[in-house]
Amino acid sequence: MAESISPESVLEAFGLRHVRYRPLDPRGHSWVIESDDWQAILRRSNAGLEHVQWLHQFLGELALAEFPAPRPMPLLDGDSLALLEGTVWQVLSLLPGKRLVWTPTVPLESAGALLARFHLASTARSPTEQRPEALPLDQCHPSTAGDIARSFHEDLASVGYFGGGWCVLHGDCTSANMLIDEQERAAVAMIDFDLAHLGPPEADISFALWVSGRTEQSVVTLDPDRVRAFVTGYHRVRPLTARAARAIPLYLVGRGLQMHVRMERVGRSDEIQMQRLQWLHAHRPQLEDVVASALDAGASGGP
């Protein structure tokens, strides 16, 4: 079985017998591999080959823009990915740094600003075709949240979702997928692009706020001050239109629907995620006011 293939076997298959390795995560999906001259990440992917090829092509383009993100490393017979016994393996550069998560000394404005810089780079480097196996928001129709889904899809067009201006989104740019420089008190790099796909940039802000807008992992509600700080930091680097005040709260609902579709596909359910989705749906007007105040603050340069 593919799951039984060890990283040692993969390295040996590609002539990397003398490369050292150690686990990067407890799930057995990623390893740090290193020689005396370089470090990288070896990752086992659950996605199809075309899905990963699309991502590596984009990350290669992003590297040309010198945006701080993992870059493909051609260590597998001259390529950065390979299919071995039915499993896709990939090698990406290892970025130094600590994950942001809830580090209190790094302002969330910095995280919003980093996402804005990514979108500026992404807009110039994005492909025109959607990523294979992607799950964009307009395709999210979970049966477990039918009423919310119907309301969401009725409103999509009104916030400009189908109006163009799409780019590659990170897809999961939460504080866990941002690296920080603690001395500079700033977010400095982005990692884990496994959910990257084409979509409107404002949706990526919502994906980030799904976690970063909360005061801790376990809570259901979003914190207005954290939402405002993140959006303000973004807006100062890549100005948003007034329509974003309605779009970002709506796309937050879409993120919840997206998660429910993924859970339905594997036969799972999660009561906390349902509570979060219901809260976001019920509090869209209040969140619109919060985002609007962030746009005003960003435009004026105020706190």
CATH class of the largest domain: Alpha Beta
Structural class: alpha+beta
How many strands? 10
Helix content: 40-55%
- Percent of sequence in beta strands: 5-15%
**CATH level-4 homologous superfamily of the largest domain:** Aminoglycoside phosphotransferase (APH), C-terminal lobe
Which CATH architecture of the largest domain would you pick? Answer: Alpha-Beta Complex
Biggest sheet descriptor: 5 strands, antiparallel
What name does CATH use for the topology of the largest domain? Aminoglycoside 3'-phosphotransferase, Chain: A, domain 2
Note the run of SSEs as H and E. HEEEHEEEHHEEEEHHHHH
Question: Looking at the structure, what is the overall shape?
Answer: globular
Summarize the structure in words.
The chain has 303 residues and is an alpha+beta fold. It has two domains: 2-93, Phosphorylase Kinase, domain 1; 98-300, Aminoglycoside 3'-phosphotransferase, Chain: A, domain 2 (Alpha-Beta Complex), CATH 3.90.1200.10. It has nine helices and ten strands. The protein has helices at 7-13, 49-64, 108-125, 146-156, 201-212, 224-237, 244-265, 271-282, 284-300; strands at residues 20-23, 30-34, 39-45, 81-84, 87-93, 98-99, 167-169, 178-181, 186-190, 197-199. The strands form three sheets. A five-stranded antiparallel beta sheet has the order 1-2-3-5-4, sandwiched between helices. Helix 3 packs antiparallel against helix 5, helix 3 crosses helix 6 and helix 5 crosses helix 7 (244-265). The chain is globular. The chain starts with 6 loop residues before the first helix and ends with a helix. The model has no long low-confidence stretch (mean pLDDT 94).
